[in-house]
Amino acid sequence: MTTQTRPQTTKPAALWIASDGRITCVEHGGMALAAAVEARPERLAHVTDLDDWQAITPDHIEQWAAQMGADAAAEVARCETCRMQAPAREDQPMSTEPAPVIVYSRPSCVQCTSTTRALDRRGIRYEVHEMTEDDAARFKAQGHMQAPVVVTEADTWAGFRPDKISTILAP
Which pLDDT value is given to residue 1? Predict the structure, then answer.
């Protein structure tokens, strides 16, 4: 009797879901998730100091599509930070859509105002989201300790950073 084993892939999953429901890519999931995935890219689950992570698979997408419809499932299956979309099927390549600049701001925040003014001067389109306590906790876990937190397609940073703003390509 011969036993066939399924070949293991070493390509890490594109998106991960935390036990609290947050969805992220490895880049925006924090150093602990990135280290765990780098060490064992074939695993579909990782336990880090901060959270339990499970890889989002095509089965998740199918279940979400059955529960809420394909369009809603596609919206759910995105990194909260970079808006990367998960493939609907294994044979489809992963796609990304350009994400706008998002500024997570606090009321009466001088650095937040300075950031939006600098973006305005450069003609860069952006969205301002009021930073919730959940957002603040997520950003703190990623090492961002002050407002605003600016999320672009290519980078994420905290505080007023004219050097970073100057690297954003205007439309």
Answer: 44
